[in-house]
Write the structure tokens for this entry.
Amino acid sequence: MRILIADDHDLVLDTLQAYLEGQPETQVCKASTYEAAAEAMRDEGPFDLVLLDFSMPGMQGLEGLKQAMDLNGGQPVGLMSGSAPRQVAEEALAMGAAGFLPKTLAAKSFVLAVGFMVAGEQYAPVNFMTEREEETIHPLASKLSTREMQVLEALCRGQSNKEIARELDLQEVTIKLHVKTLTRKLNARNRTHAAMIAKQAGLF
């Protein structure tokens, strides 16, 4: 079984690789950007399963998922995320994604989920898909668009406008506009204050 995992955090990649390669006859390939994952699918694919981080550089959200499903020749492609809301998971599954895996998923559940997806089943944790339904949307998150949330998450990671633009595949001037808008919406003094507000509120 050949699995491609794409995520821009080395610790996540190494951890997931360790989980999966503990299973019989499992080979894991890794990529840290969407471009690298796409290249691997073109050169070495199709893989039995591709797992993509929703917010990694170049991903462009669900558009990247759609492209990857074509690149992987009809074989399963799933999403992983540490912050995407249930709505994203629902849209991804409706598009035909093999599954949606929160990064909080326990190791045993992760391995089982991979087995489901490789077998052609769709997987999403029941508690994730139902708990969020009962929760009210975070008051801060409700003020921001999906793109502004992505930019805010990057601000929380300390990224510059240039780095965010490269990650989201947008112009730097567009990122500046998003930063200005989200800062105003959050009543923040500046980008650092906006990130501080988001972290203190538990958004990321």
